[in-house]
Design brief:
With about 120 residues, this protein is α/β, with parallel strands linked by helices. The chain is about 45% helix and about 20% strand.
Length: about 120
């Protein structure tokens, strides 16, 4: 079984966190045939953490977890923190295949989306 875990920064403002949860709900509806589980996680300020999500997924016979960093730029969280967390998870759960996709900001379609909006 495969899982997708989308990662956001997390905010002290609940509205921001809820906007991300709502987006993940939409992604879940569009990709339910591709992934058996699609989960929301946060790095700071709010739960669930990446580690909590993976701990839960590990009990559900998930064999592959793909992470999608929902970040515009490759700052410290994208280039250091997330890879470090995933390295630790690989050591903790050696029977699960982990993969980190490129962060959202590298999508080739962002310029087109912004151009449509302006």
């Amino acid at each position: 079984m495969k899982a997708l875990v989308l990662i956001a920064h997390g905010s002290k403002k609940e509205k921001s966190n809820q906007e991300f949860r709502d987006l993940v709900d939409e992604i879940r509806e569009l990709n339910s045939k591709k992934y058996e589980k699609i989960e929301t996680s946060f790095l700071e300020f709010v739960e669930p953490s990446i580690e909590d999500i993976v701990k839960n997924l590990a009990t559900q016979n998930i064999k592959s977890i793909t992470f999608y960093p929902y970040f515009l730029n490759s700052g410290k969280h994208v280039s250091v923190d997330i890879p470090n967390i995933v390295t630790t998870l690989k050591n903790t759960y050696p029977d699960i295949d982990f993969k980190i996709l490129q962060h959202f900001g590298l999508s080739k379609r962002i310029a087109s989306i912004i151009s449509e909006e302006i």
